[in-house]
Amino acid sequence: MTEFVHTRIKNNIGFITLDRPKALNSLSLDMVRAITSALLAWRDDSAVQAVVIRSSSERAFCAGGDIRFFYDAGRATPQGGSALLEDFFTEEYALNHLIHFYPKPYVALMDGIVMGGGMGVAQGGETNRMRIVTDRTKMAMPEVNIGLFPDVGGGYFLSRVPGEIGTYLGVTGEVIGAADALYAGLADVFVPASELPGLSELLESADSSRLPQAIREFAARFQSQVAAGLLAAERATIDRHFAHDDVTSIVASLSRDDSAFARKTIDTMNKRSPLMMCVTLSQLRKGKTMSVAECLRMERTMVRRSFENGEVLEGIRSVVIDKDNAPKWSPAQLEDVSKEMVEGFFEPAWPAHAHPLRTLD
Q1: For burial by CB atoms within 10 Å, which of 33, 66, 117, 279 has the most?
Q2: Any catalytic annotation for residue 65?
Q3: For 48-105, where are the E strands, in sequence order?
Q4: Cα 317 from Cα 324, distance rounded (Å)
Q5: Radius of gyration of the chain from Cα atoms?
Q6: pTM score, two decimals?
Q7: What distance lies between CA 141 and its chain's CA centroid?
Q8: Which residue range or ranges hold the Enoyl-CoA hydratase/isomerase domain (predicted)?
């Protein structure tokens, strides 16, 4: 396929292996195209009864999109209008849609780091999916840390997480482990990393027609090893504070809570882009009533507006380019974020008939 994506068929199962370990399997446009090509080829191929996507590295399943590429492409032309950048997001979101509605069992082995675009290729689907986490799983939608928002369908899957957990994860960008992923409904089963060789043997030899069931049976003996996580312990607190429909009210609510969790959450939010926390909250509230296609179309508009705005370029600069972790957010203070600033991210960037994802349904 490509240097960084390998595919093969064995035992009527199509295997996609992400193999860009030095970049934590960050997705490039070529990688998005390779995954899409394989899934399209296998969709109507009777020789393929199920699909497994995994990594060649224990460090990461996929750390997201290639944000260094985003930075270089976004700075190449005025207002971040690179054609390659446009192609990347259009094709990535189309891939997310393809995965969500894939007609065959789709198994994602989320070992190691699973963030951003990695969530996009793991969270799709509702009936045919199987999402496996391990004790090495570090899961997040951390986009607010780089001046972006939880895209790749985040407006859909985060807004459907129980209570206000999805709001908390999207607005803060916090990282969670296996227990919290299972509690939030962002994973299906737990397998210890030490047992992955046995899982690999199963994947290579199981009856493809009952692959999800076989994985559940394999994982059942390990479920007692998953300790209670933070989200379960703080569920009532999260639901109370993050039920507000503006970030200022969320922060005010947290400020009245003297718990260690509330203080830590405020400290985290103080490091995020004030503007993009507000944009994210609006995105998640809108996403609750949208279909997958509608969410992806909304996010495609939002990402165009994000690169025009430039907040994301400053965020990437601080984290990846200069690595000073001192972004100069604009506005710098939450109280300076206006309703008009937030609404600007949702203003149509194309007529409906010309939207890059207009054919999704």
Answers
A1: 279
A2: yes
A3: 50-55, 60-62
A4: 8
A5: 20
A6: 0.96
A7: 5
A8: 13-346
Find the catalytic residue in 116, 117, 118, 287: 117
Is the preceding peptide bond at 78 cis, omega within 30 degrees of 0?
Answer: no
Delimit the domains of the chain by residue range: 5-354
Please give the pLDDT value at position 173. Answer: 98
CATH architecture, domain defined by 5-354: Alpha-Beta Complex (3.90)
Q: Would you call 143 a catalytic residue per the annotation? A: yes
pLDDT of 22 above 80 = yes
Does 81 participate in catalysis according to the annotation?
Answer: no
Once rounded to an integer, what is the mean pLDDT over residues 270-293? 98
Catalytic-role residue among 111, 143, 164, 195: 143
Marked catalytic residue, from 14, 64, 65, 112: 65
Mean pLDDT of 338-356: 97
- Give the Cα-Cα-Cα angle 248, 343, 340 (nearest 5 degrees): 70
Give the residue-averaged pLDDT of 229-246: 97
- Is residue 237 a contact partner of residue 257, using CB atoms and an 8 Å limit? yes
Catalytic residue, chosen from 66, 111, 135, 151, is 151
